[in-house]
Amino acid sequence: MIVLEPLEIPKDQPGNPWFPLPRGAALFLAYLGRLVYLHGYVLSLIARRRVDLRLSVFQMATVGVASLPIATITALLSGMVIGYHFAVQAGQLGVSAYAGWLVAETMSRELGPVLVAFVVAARAGSAMTAELGTMKATEQIDALRALATDPIEYLVVPRYLGAVLMLPLLTFVGDFAGVLGGYVMSVIAPQINARVYFTAIPANLEAWTIIAGLLKTLVFGMVISLVACHEGLSCRPASEEVGRATTRAVVYCIMLIYAADVALTAILYPG
Amino acid sequence: MEPSEFAVQVRDLVYRVGGRTILDGLTFNVGRNSCLGVMGMSGTGKSTLLKNIMGLLRPTSGDVLINGQSIVGLSEQEMAPIRRKMGMCFQYAALFDSMTVAENVAFGLRRHQRLPEDEIRRRVSESLGRVGMEGTEALYPAELSGGMRKRVGIARALILEPELMLYDEPSAGLDPITAARLDGLIASLDRERGMTSIIVTHEVEELFALCDMVMMIHEGKIVALDTPQALRETSDPLVRQFVEGRADGPITV
Description:
The structure holds two protein chains of two kinds.
Chain A: H1 23-47, H2 53-93, H3 99-137, H4 140-146, H5 151-188, H6 201-204, H7 207-233, H8 239-268
Helix pairs in contact in A: 1-5, 1-7, 2-3, 2-5, 3-5, 3-7, 3-8, 5-7, 7-8
Chain B: E1 6-17, E2 20-31, E3 35-39, H1 46-53, E4 61-66, E5 69-70, H2 76-83, E6 86-89, H3 101-112, H4 117-130, H5 146-158, E7 164-168, H6 176-193, E8 196-200, H7 204-210, E9 213-218, E10 221-226, H8 228-233, H9 237-244
Parallel strand pairs in B: 3-8, 3-9, 6-7, 7-8
Antiparallel strand pairs in B: 1-2, 1-4, 4-5, 9-10
């Protein structure tokens, strides 16, 4: 299985004369190719209903329930900060009544999906890589295969479903928490008028704004689970390597989430 | 297709990794209901050979046939029915550390056979009993010694009653009494259930007692493949040095 092998291009391997690429670019393309392959493999297993429901529900609880407090607190605090900034700016422009709507718009379009995805990548993604990497290093992945069990089916599919299904829910809660955070700030800070905080939201915040934000998180969930599982499965069998793979997983997740965010924002919010 | 007379056929097997040749053109057959012993220095590719036979590693070139069917290039899904008839005992047991002993041993049954929970419990305790590990069902691998883990690993592989069993250093790290008991178990499984075994070990006496044929690998090549009796009497200096466990000789460390 290609995804169980460390990704490397041997230094002494001659380049392809028809398609010369610098080493870094070749590695990047090979990495993306592996993620696409792993994704195709996972989707084909799901399409054939080769899904262990018990393990998938367990992963949903691991990703969803366990990440809920930290995701909510992060979104709440971010909502407070941007609520404060918006209120000051809106006050200067004489449109204080719109501060709450601006917070809601920012949270559901951008901050909610991205912040929650970062929190899940850091909390659940790193745990996935560390667990799978340790299993790789202690031959547990080989033992699974020797017991006629496909590690992608047994390990990756439940984590994929856990992340993809739970991230939109966590983000929905995060969006609410952010708006609430802005309100809390409006009550505390004298510059903000708490009485008008919510008034402009119903008339101005469109359902599509929220839905498109949640759609983005489906893709973020795919990125987090696939990157984290790939780093764990392809980890070299050594404890130091498990640590490196875990760091790599979080860094790659953050970069790919941002890259996906740029593309998805352009597609989902064309106007 | 006629069933092959050999459980395992290895043809010109080469395995290279990171520019190093670990296995260099191995060719041998393992007959049904027989036991092949594989001995050699540490790092000569004995475990790599077992992983190639199990399909866990893909050979650089050459072929591996299980019951006459080539397994090289098969997907995990295609390998699954073949692996269900095979069992592997890993060098460091490779128990699932987030599961109890009972869950480890029951893993194969739960994945591949729909059995009532009572039957699973009965088979688990029977399998643990065979390796002298009764009463450890609720323990976690971290609570076991290295030798105990190894025995649980064997119980986990045996519960599916495989036709072909691969043992990687089955008695390393065990006390002499447990090791002898395990050897007896392997011998009885071969004899009574018609199981085919491949045993990799440094323990020369264990191999000679258990196996019909013994193979010695040195620097990735087969240097001897014969009956235990013939290897005891051989004049080959490599084999003699290894069998007699002498520091001086053609093999240098």
